Amino acid sequence: MKNVLIIGSTGQIGSELTMKLRGIYKEGNIIAGYIPGAEPKGELLESGPAAVVDITNEQQIAETVSKYKIDTIYNLAALLSAVAEAKPQLAWKIGIGGLFNVLEVARELHCAVFTPSSIGAFGTDTPKDKTPQDTVRNPRTMYGVTKVTGELLSNYYYIRFGVDTRSVRFPGLISYVTLPGGGTTDYAVDIFYSAAKGQKFVCPIKAGTFMDMMYMPDALRGAIEIMEADATKFVHRNSFNIASMSFDPEIIYNNIKKYVPGFQMEYQVDPLRQAIAESWPNSLDDTCARQEWGWKPEYDLDTMTKDMLAKLEARYKK
Ligand code: VAH
User: Fold this and answer.
1) pTM passes above 0.85
2) Is 73 found in the same domain as 222?
3) Fewest CB atoms within 10 A around its CB: which of 47, 48, 163, 273?
4) Which residues form the catalytic set?
């Protein structure tokens, strides 16, 4: 990789992935693709080139890929799970209509493509604990339907046209740079903000509801390492289970309380997010990613908690 286009560069993953790629590929062009109204700001704007790239506009994608001689596209444009339930047509238009545009450009202009899938690709009839790499994928959300369809479409473009498509199934991602928008796992981000601000946290997910989670630095490393991996060792492509930790609200609350004594939480369950969370696995088996391209997480709940609190307290306790 050296000339990379990140579509959705100002979102939760994109804003940090763009900066990490610019740090690694200093001599390359790392293009921050964005849509009007979600312009890059601050360091993201000042540290490298940006371009208006609307994933629903194939011509715009093609022009940007040609202009910067892009060899790899990170397609991070998507509506997250709860928002996608409110706007299913738009979720499909961006998640699949947009993906089709990206794959067509990649076919014609010979780019590799990374499109994240998610634990949301699974449904209630999937084995919930240590969910296998190859298993039933019957999601009950539009978000999950776009993720399974995205996996199938990306595989088709590899098999039929030789497009180098690769993907991981992300757990819920936790970060302190850019807030996520409208996800089911976002409670695990919001709880840290409440703790850092000295506020009580109102949790929308029931105690005992386990979901796979991951700290953003591990997610970014996974997204880069899979695109740099030797594909001759791949048995799978779209999409690899990757995992690092699984917890419920009680576990993360008690871990934070170790460092923020007196931190309080109460439950006000959001029926929509609770139903989505209950349809997802408790934990994933990521053996295939470990065997086929050396995936290995570096953060666990405690090291993530310490880092999240340090970063957020520095921001809010000035
Ligand atoms: C969501 N944060 O909650 C996203 C993610 C696995 C969850 O895809 O929708």
Assistant:
1) yes
2) yes
3) 47
4) 143
